[in-house]
Structures are given as C-alpha cells and as structure tokens.
Amino acid sequence: MDSIWLIPLLPGIGAAINGLVGIRFFGKRFAGVLASFMMGWALWLSLVAFWELLGTEERFHQVTVASWIPPIPLETVDGIGSFSVDWSFTLDPLSAMMLLVVTGIGFLIHIYSIGYIEHEPRGGVARFFCYLNLFCFFMLTLVLGSNFLVMFVGWEGVGLCSYLLIGYWYQKKSASDAGKKAFIVNRIGDWGFVLGVFLVFFTFGTLDFRAVAEAASHMPVETAAVGFGVISLICLCLFVGATGKSAQIPLYVWLPDAMEGPTPVSALIHAATMVTAGVYMVCRNAVLFTHAPMVMEVVAVVGVLTALVAATIGLVQTDIKRVLAYSTVSQLGYMFLATGVGAFGAAAFHLMTHAFFKALLFLGSGSVIHGMNEEQDMRRMGGLRQYMPVTALTMAIGAVAIAGIPPFSGFFSKDEILFRAYLHHGVFVPDKVLWGLGVVTAMLTAFYMFRLINMTFFGAYRGPAWGHDGAEAHGHDDAGHGRAWHGPHESPRWMTIPLVVLAVGAMLAGFVGVPIAFEAVWPWTATIEHFLHPSFVAEGAHAAEEAHHMSLLGELGLMAFSVLIAVGGIWFAYRNYVERPEEAERMAATFAGPHRVLTNKYYVDELYDATVVRGTMEGAGGLWTVDRRVVDGAVNGTGWTTIAAAWVSHILDKYVVDGLVNLTAWICGEASYVFRRAQTGLIQNYAFATLLGVFAFVTWYLVAR
Amino acid sequence: MLEITPLHYSLLSAALFMIGVIGVLVRRNVIIIFMSIELILNAVNINLIALSDRLQDLAGQVFVVFVIAVAAAEAAVGLGIIIAFYRNKETVNIDEIQIMRW
Fold this sequence. Notes:
The complex is a heterodimer of chains A (705) and B (102). Chain A has 705 residues and is mainly alpha-helical.
C-alpha cells in the first residue's frame, strides 16, 4: 500500500519512454505492448493495494512522497496561515474504486488500441501510446491526489492529454478544432475550479481533502434558512469546474466534438475516466457539498437537465460515436443528479458501471468503424451482426446494460439513482420532478441505444459495396489507410478480447450494489455503498449511514416501473428501426420542426458561436483596433513629437548655440587683428623688441637706483 | 705708457657687445647673425675676465670657461639647424624664415 505512488508513475515512465525514444525507434507492436505492460503493472499494483486496503480497519492510507511547496505565509480568514503542499497520495475506498476503474479499463483499452491503431504510421503509434500512457499518469494522479493541488495537477494534465488525443489526427482541421474547443471550454471550467481551491484555502487554511472535510463538518449546514455562505460558494465554484470536465450544461459542447479523436481515446478519456473526474471531485468533497444543500440542488438540476437534453439530442444523431457521446453526457448528468440528491455512493457506483458499459460501447463502435473502413454514419451500416458477431453481441450487452435491464450492471446503478431521486426532498424543486425527468431520460436512453444497435447490426446492409478481388475503385475506400477494403469484417483478437472482458464486466459489475430490497434473495446488498461510505463523511464524524427505505412493495414497484419504461424504449426502437424502418422517416417528417432542432443540437453551438465566440472575436477585434489606433497612435505620436522637438532643438542649436560660439570666435578673431600685427615672424623684430626691453630695464635700474 | 685699466676692458667689451647687437639686428644672413651672437658672448667674456682679474676672484674665469663650452655647444646645434633649414628652403636669409607667422 505504501507503493501507491508507483501506480501513476508507471504509465508516466511508459509515456516518457515511448515519447522520447519510441517515436523514433520503436516498432508499432512494441510501443503498444510497452504501454500496455506499464498499465498492466499499474493494474496489478492497484489490485494489491485494493486487497491491502480491504484488510485494514481504518480504510484510509496516505503516502507522502515529497514536499512540493514549502510553507509560505498566506492570508486566510483566520489571519496568516501557512500554505504548504505535499506530493501525497490517498488510498481510501473512493480512490481505490477509481484506481481499479482507471487501471482496469485503461489496461483493456491499451490492449484494444494495439489492434485499433495498427494502420497508423510507426511513429504515430508510439505517439499515440505515449499520450495514452501520459493520460493514465495524470488520471491516476488526479484520483490518488490527497489535496486539491495534486488533484489539480492531474485535472489539468488529463485536459492536456485529452487535447492532444482529440487532435491526434492533427492534419484534419475538424480534429484540431475539436481539440482546441475541448481545451478552451475546459479552461472555463478550470477557472471555476481554481477559484474554488483558492476559496478553500482562504476558508480552511489547508488544501488537504481530509482536513477540509474535517473542518467543514464542524460548520453549520447552509440551508436556505441559514443562507448562501462560503461553503456554498466554494461548492458552486468547484461545480463550475466539474461542469467543464464532466461536460454538463452549459459546458457540455466540447464532448461530442471530442469524438474526432481515435475511438479508444473516446472510450478511455471521453467516456470511462476523464469525464468522470468532475463526478469524482464532487464525491471527494461530499462533506463540503452536503453542507451546501442549495448548491446540491443546483447540481441535481443541472445534472438531470443535462441528462435529458443530451438524451434528446442523442435520439436523432446518425454518427455512431456522436450518439455515444451524447449518451455519455446524459449518463454523466445522471451521476450529477445522484450527487445532487446526496447519493454519492450511487453516483460512484454508476460511475463504475458506466465506465464498463460505455467503454464497451465505444470500443464496440470502434470495432464497427474499424471493420467498416472508417465509416461512422449509421445510415450506411445495417445488418453487420453477420459480419462481426463478437462485436454485435458485446455491444448488445452494453446497450442492455445502459438501458437498465436487470440483472445487467446499468440497472442496479441507475435504479439506485432514480430511487434516491424519488425519495429526495428538494429545496426549490418540487419533489418527484427530478425523478420524473430521470425516468423520461431512462426511456430515451433505452430508445436511442437500441436505435444505434438496430441501425448498426440489424436490418439490411446499406453500406458501400466492396469488390472481392480487392481492386475495386470505390471512392470511399482507401480513405483511411491506403489498403483495399474487403467488406465489413470482425476486428482482430487484440480488439475483441477487451470487448469480451468488458462485456462480462458490464454484465456482472452491478452485483456489487444490489438494492437492499433484494435482501431476501441476495445477501450481499449495497456492498459498494457500504464500502464507499467512509469516503463521504468526515473523519471522526462516523455518522450512521442514513437508511433510505420505503415500503418494500413501493421500491420493487419503482424498479418494475423503470424496467418497464426501458423495455418500452427498446420496443419502440425495435418497431421503428427493425420492423418498419420507414416508420422512423415518417416520424421525422411528422415532427419536422423538433427533429430539425434536435438534429442541430438545439443550436447551442450556433448560440455559443453567435454570443461567446463572436463576442470574443469582436471584442478582440475591437481591442486590436484600439491597439492599432490608440496605443500605436500614442507610440507613433510620441515618435513624431520627438522628431518635431528634435527639429526645433536642431534649429536652436544651429542658429543660437552655434551662433553664440561662432560669435565668440569671431569677436576673438576681430579683436586679434590689432595684436597680430606684432607677430611679424621676423626674428630680428623680436630681438629688437627684446633689446629695447633690456635697455628700458637697465635704464630704469640705473636711473631709479 | 698708457696703463690698461678695467675701464678699457669695459669699453672694449661694450663696443664689442654693441657691434654684436647691431649685427644681430640688421644682418639678414643667419650665419652672420650667428657670428654676431658669438661676438656678444665674447664681449661678456671679456668683461667677466677683466672683472675677475680686478676683483681677484676666479669664479669669473670659471664662468667664462662655462660660457665658451656652452657657446661651442650652441654653435654646433645652431649650425645643425641652419644646415637642416638650408636643405629645405635653399636659403639662409632670415627674412624668409617666418613660417611661425600668423
């Protein structure tokens, strides 16, 4: 357990080797295997650490590697405090769970990438694995960091890697644009996060999570009656950071565009791990957030609205990865809904199950894209299950899991969230509204997910034709990687094995969080909630876990209802896209207006373009004009003034000063006219003068004596 | 027989001196001027010797020896200058030696 600092370091070393040496010298396979080996090692250490954590009574272990910032006196609310930060890592239930998710899924995705990325040029492969390992390094730093600043290092680092990986195909304009967009939108969120961190230090005089939680637990809960206090402000700032990183309203726009990156990246960074960093951060500061119920309400509302809005957009997208991207946004909304209603355990649980099934779905879509020769449009797919059976089966398992059909993992986690939302008594929002929106979203989720499955794997094949001799001249071919395409095919084993492993995970991961209602038939209920609980309360304040009970019948009824809803969505998708494909087009025509709005993603990008982007550009243009006119004008004016003054000075110099000097010289010259008569140059004249002088003196001497 | 008194020496010395002075002032040839300067110096020498004898003090005669030595040195240097000048201007006419004029 003392070697947990090694867990982030291993992928970091892998990134350094691949980045410094590999791009030039390593073969494709070797670069991938090296990176995967580092991740496998980190996974092994994580498993060991997890096992050791289970063995301890305290369930908390902190390792300080080194001092980072030595104590600096700095102003806090209680006078001058001491600002010091250590490189320290915390292993507690929450970070242990995240550790397993990141290293486990990360390892599988590294393996998968070996197969996925094999058509890239050699240096590109090493670069890819360098970024991927670097990402894991930062993500693990984020997860393990035991204070805000170490977490922030990881937080910014994953943002950087996200940018690098989205823009991996940097020759493509859309990809590099998407990378910039992700980076800039995240910057807005990070601004809030940083402000929150400043305020945390100012308020508590420390940045250590545990100490902050401990201090906050002694402060009053800032209910509506108490008013909006400093903790609420901190939480609001931190939540702004979370909306950026975890793609919530209003900062979700970068995530769908992030799909320009390679698919394993989308799976690892933009589905399973990085985007959950916001949820993780909120869970990590559960004590703070529970002391700010009004902000919790904001979190819940933003979460559920994001879930709903993203799900509706996902209904009509035709790009397979974009559907999954909006689905990710939507599921992240669920997680924030859970944190907002105080169900941090459920949020973390959903985070974990979501990591499994969303990584699975993304990798499956990557497999489809790979098999379809870089085709991403679902309208040009169909009937693929006969060409890629493993992909089809595993993706279907993922879809069932996300739709919430028991006993797959998504059912347990999503139902826990909906159940807690049902019981929640809001500050401003009427009861059951959050739950109602959540249920609607659940139905939409089931629908769009099975729409994806049906359009991709069922029905008739609608894609491009292919020649069996491999010499066909089809325009779409060779776009990806200069090789003849022999029709849709199953992906290599490097890719299918991770799919299978993830599918097993997506099936079984839910059993760690079986609802208490099933106590009679399944003795290990709510395991993960009990396990995680210590992470969500302050040290010492071992408050009993709140019991969230309603009548057994009511709880089972709620579950049955949400399952029914999900089945309804699935049936609707089956009817519209398999039984009667023309039905979908008819509906699109009937609801042309809403359909257009959804296809255009509520015009949010356009709105942001028109307001924020245009505003910034025009503001910059205005400032540029000011710069050019006023600042440059001032500089040039100074220049001209100097020249004019110099001219005046020159004139003065030339006529007045020089005139005076010349006048002096002239006067001397004129005056000397008289005297220079004496200077004949004739020695005898001088001698004569001397003689006269001598005579004069001698005479005077003789006479005057 | 007329006794030669110090007055005679002084008169001779004065005459010689005046001849030398007039020579220096009126002659144009540098060589002549130079010779005139020698006359002046020797006029002084005569005076010194005469008075040395009269006053029975050898300091005057010692002084004369110095004057002769210095005059010899002066003659050497002066003649050297004149030769150098003559090589440049091909004249020893003092009227033409006036380059220090304004």
